[in-house]
């Protein structure tokens, strides 16, 4: 993980640009689909119904989360607690399960350990959107460095380069070049996935538009061709 304490960026609370910050938020649009083959139609996408089934039998209790197939509507059960001693289940949790508490439904519908235990995975398509807020730079010739704070409303695993591509409207190659050159400074690899809040640094308010970056690259290549070989020798036309 990169250390940003001595990287030339302004320290918090010092300098005229110390307060330049932007907030990016991954907004929740919905819960992920549960990918599990339906026993009736074999379709693989399910959604949580928002309900639990609780069955107490003497001194033991069973709890299932109910899910519904998106195609045929068949209801299936995901085991949450199986043959658990009633006294071992915290009373408040039991009340939330029996009352189909919405926060409990959300927590269990996102529970990766439960998914691993029940052998299903998540499909996060269409569950999030990125909202970006950038400080105004009107009248500033050199906006200076910028700190971007990324916050997750939903613990969706997103590749860092995809966040940057979405937030800045750039191609993957441009984003990777900027990260490699240090213009974007990240606390993890640019191709890593993350689901937790983090911050990164940019050496300007925003990267240049893709067309501008391409134009600069083409100009550099033309300049190299005009200069000829690395030794300064240019072949004369016969």
Structure, explained:
The chain is α+β, with helices and mostly antiparallel strands and 238 residues long. It folds into two domains: 21-28 and 129-226, no CATH class; 33-123, no CATH class. Helices cover 25% and strands 30% of the residues. It contains six helices and twelve strands. A five-stranded mixed β-sheet has the order 7-1-8-12-10. A hairpin with a 2-residue loop joins strand 3 and strand 4. The protein starts with 20 loop residues before the first strand and ends in an 11-residue tail after the last helix.
The radius of gyration over CA amounts to 26 Å
Strand content: 25-35%
Largest sheet: 5 strands, mixed
Number of domains: 2
What spatial form do the alpha-carbon principal axes imply? elongated
**Portion in helices:** 10-25%
N-to-C order of helices and strands: EEEEEHHHEEEEHHEEEH
Q: Low-confidence parts lasting 5 or more residues at pLDDT below 50?
A: 1-17, 205-210, 229-238
Mean pLDDT: 82
Q: Give the terminus-to-terminus CA distance.
A: 56 Å
- Counting helices, strands and paired strands, the structural category is alpha+beta
- How many strand segments? 12
Spatial strand order of the main sheet: 7-1-8-12-10
